[in-house]
Amino acid sequence: MTFQTGVSPSGSYTGGEDAWLGSAWPNDAWGYTDWGCIIGTYGGTNRGLVKFSLTGIPGNATVTSAKLRLKVCTITGSMTIDAYQILRNWTRGGATWNKYDGTNAWTTAGCASTGNDRAATAAGSVNVVTGDLGNWIEIPLSTGLVQGWVSGS
Hints:
This protein has 153 residues and is mainly β. Helix content is 6%, strand content 22%.
């Protein structure tokens, strides 16, 4: 099953959200923009946040594979993109480098505290190179982790 706001599982799906955190703009919320991409190098350290409502998937469904597709907007050189489970209930319009919902601070700025802000182990990773600019890349995700989300654990 694919989740993309306004596209899938139906044109009325609105359960996807994203936000962008930038250390160069620590108090600015970038979740209100619909840039259509999340990966980029814009000065300082940058992190993207994405989340999806899994409503519509039965809790007893079996996850056989999972991946996160992201568009590469800017890149200088090559890098590894790691995807982590976010442990805070961040909001699209409130997430900044310093705060996860516009009011409450991340334990460590930039969603960097493992075990508090994000999981310690990456759910998946992929290497990205300058030739990927403008392309969609796929990060294979831990099926066990995604199975837990679907099952509600």
